[in-house]
Here is the input.
Amino acid sequence: MNTKRFVAFLLTIVLILTVVGATSPYIASKVRLGLDLKGGFEILYEAKPLQAGKSVTPESLNQTARSLEDRVNSAGVAEPEITTEGKNRIRARIAGVGNQSDVRKMLKEPANLTFRNSAGEIVMNGADFVPGAAKIGYDQANQPVIEIEVVDKAKFAKVTKALTGQPMSIYLDEKELGHPVVSGELTTGKATITGYDLDEAKNIRNTINLGALPLQLTEKYTNAVDATLGQESLDKTLLAGFIAFVLILLFMGFYYRVPGLIACVTLVVFVWMLLLVYVLLNASLTLPGIAAFVLGVGMAVDANIITYERIKEEIRSGKSIMSGFRSGSKNSFRTVMDSNLTTMIAAAVLFMLGTGTIKGFALTLIFSIIISLITNIFLSRVLLQLLIRSNAAKKPAHFGVKEDEIHAL
Here is the structure.
């Protein structure tokens, strides 16, 4: 037996399990629960057009709902449920908010960017600007400027032509950001705001991007939302998941012997990394997210089983342990990748077309696939190859293969 390689294998396992064990309680305490697990509050809005004589269109209503979702996310709330109802209503269901009044104020009083002439009349409003298009640029003196893009270039050209030689005031709600003198007709569809340092410019840019709502919203009512799954039910769900996970580990270790034990380590790392991703993304764990989590664990186990069964078949055919490991890993890789990629494509479609918790389910599934490829394919193979090279696992029985099952090569 190669003692150095075997010690390296053991130290790697010990280091991995030590890091996971030491950090897991902290990571678990930082995972945020969604509306259906923790409860929260909901707000019903009625939408009206910004200009008299206009109407609320399905496109403007959907765009306003998306803008509200961006606003809530910017406040540190993950996976809000923002849905449209009827022809002019939007319902926002929000969880994990420390100060509800701040979020309600941010949503109820969205900042509106307007351009006004010297008489104070509004010549362009929030609906005239491209949502989320404000950005930071620099002028010839390398000073920061805020660049704004308009929807209708012809309208902007007409407005600037009429105001040539006159000041055009720029307001965010009732706060004046500047009153530059229009030098001439602007046909590029872009305007700039100057006179602010970089930090102030960034804050104004962010406010403009979040404030460009196509519709005016009026709050109809607000009420608390109870969790769909009570604390007792949640505890039982987590206990059932823990028991199932332990049974999976016992099965892998008993049936696949040495590779199964390595799979147990990589599965523990898989769960740890997936929870870590939740914390780093500040995402909320919802019931659909738990479903995707469980599905990800199942796919991770499946990847190990496919690989190990293939290795066992190669050993049964008469190949050596190392040769069987190489051939089995190589031949199973394409199968595992194909199954994971097709699932990832389906999850990507769900993420692009879905909203709220559907997006949460899809995003969890995508990350679980990526982490599964890292832990249960590459990490598992590295550890198994290190163990085989140390000659600590050199018998077919170590891989769950009986001597009488091996055929002549």
The chain has three domains: 3-34+228-405, 40-110+213-225, 111-212. The mean pLDDT is 82.
